[in-house]
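User: Could you write out the 3D structure of this protein bound to adenosine-5'-diphosphate? I've included everything you need below.
Assistant: Certainly. Input first, then the structure.
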Amino acid sequence: MSAKTTKKQFKAESKRLLEMMINSIYTHREIFLRELISNASDAIDKMYYKALSSSEIEFNKDDYFIKVTADEASRTLTISDTGIGMTREELENNLGVIAKSGSLAFKKETELQEDHQIIGQFGVGFYSAFMVADHVKVISRAHGSDEAFLWQSSGAEGYTIESTEKPSFGTDIILTVKPNTEDDSYDDYVSEYSLRSIIKKYSDFIRYPIKMDISESVLKEGTEDEYEQVVTEQTVNSMVPIWRKNKSELTDADYENLYNEKRFGWDKPLSHLHISADGSIRYQSILYIPEQTPYDYYTKEYEKGLELYSSGVLIMNKCADLLPDYFSFVKGIVDSEDLSLNISRELLQQDRQLKVIAKNIKNKIKGHLQSLLNNEREKYETFFKAFGRQLKFGVYSDYGMEKEVLQDLLLFHSSKEQKLVSLDEYISRMSEDQKFIYYATGESHARIEKLPQVELVADKGYEILYFTDDIDEFAIKSLRSYKDKEFKSVSSGDLGFEDNENKEAEQTSEEDQTLFDQMKEVLSGKVKDVRASKRLKSHPVCLTAEGELSIEMEKILRAMPNAENIEANKVLELNVNHPIFATLKAAAGNDEEKVKLYTHLLYNQALLIEGLPIEDPVEFTNNICKVMV
Ligand code: ADP
């Protein structure tokens, strides 16, 4: 450094800095209460940690609490604590210097172990009081001192400190709440009811009692219908979060209470899981699987997410990043002391920690569902009826990236069992000669059962999975196979039977081929091919599709906007052993009109069986009449 250069400290326009901070750090004004209560809790914690290292201090839990008092008439709100208090110097340093955190210094000085509960670290939370107050007074008496001091400020203009009296150790923060303006009401911050719900929302799990004087109307003694207003001091926070308790101490009713209290749903939870993770990132969590599908679940309005706490203080109401979309039905709470928060404590500073927790949670949910499926089948089926569709979406979305996680959790209706079965159960029942997992698609089980295509596969004794959900076939196409067994639609070109009978049937005679060609011409533009069927037994005709796009998929895709041109490669299959085929053959070559009429009739029949609309219903009925007369 040359002789001329001098090093200078940055100066800050503290007035502007304070204004900026007050108005831009926080998105919710009510957060100020969370900040002041967190400070009060820290002040009590400091006493607790001091007592741990000093035999002279006794920490009697009953002496430590926080009290919130509102006075509507004078528009004052007081937050008192019986914590460590502040000396004159500490008032000066901690409340007079922006971004100075006495709590952070305390943590460093006392070399607290990792599992401490002290919340403060940024040295700005206190000033959030100015979001709702014109004037703030702090009366504090440090532990072990005879003197008390009054710090007061009206915000940007600065502060004063003077001596005062205070009978007991601790701190009172007295806010003069702002008058209402045209745009803003501040009445909530002097209303007992609103304050109580803000405390419940953000500070329910502060470890020390938060007391309030609650006025209630109670039955007057000696009367049957006369009521009087009585004020009693009550603790308004739950203090110990149930997720910090040991599972063995908790009953199902405890978990249900939390579910109701948090308004996770109007139903009862179907199942819950309680996690206490001690890995690279520590966290506790209680997760719920609801019993019923929320009314808006399959709409855009539904918001997924878990409540996120940092050391018992609410950070985010719905943290979406904690849940993958396919588990979006899960409700619950995550609490971690290992999160690094940003300055407003409304967001996280880095999402690496969150990613670790999210991954862990994903695996736990998967494990939990799998164990429900294995051990509590009935419950799992209730779950699957409510949310199975979401799992199938999960298999299909993101190019099938998560299919490995989800495939074991899928259930489909089985032709054999007439109930839901898992893919694993299907596989375990397959006979040795069966090479594929067969499925059939349709609107309902009853309709699928009657599909001509189903008959032969069912006759072989093979189990068929019935797909009635829009998403089913898309999901299965994304899976392709399960445990090396490929999926096959009963409508697909080759059914994969290895049997000689059918091999012979494959050879189409020249005569038959001429008829097929003739029919194909009649149906030109409607079907790609007309051919002899290998799957029909008692029915004369059916429609199948060649290639990736099935008829069912065409139906679904066509219902979407701008998808009019999507078309499956349809094939009209005829049962060459059916009497109607003999009639057709007899007509071929000598009665062209008859071939035309029968071709149209058969094609329309096949459409109806598939649940597809026929182009011209009037022509169809006229054609039937022609045959009838
Ligand atoms: P933070 O809590 O992040 O440290 P604040 O601006 O809220 O930041 O508070 C600044 C400092 O003031 C705290 O670190 C603490 O040392 C002191 N302080 C604030 N409120 C209290 C209180 N109620 N009792 C004792 N000390 C307090």
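The chain has four domains: 3-235, 242-376, 410-497, 502-629.
User: Perfect, thank you.
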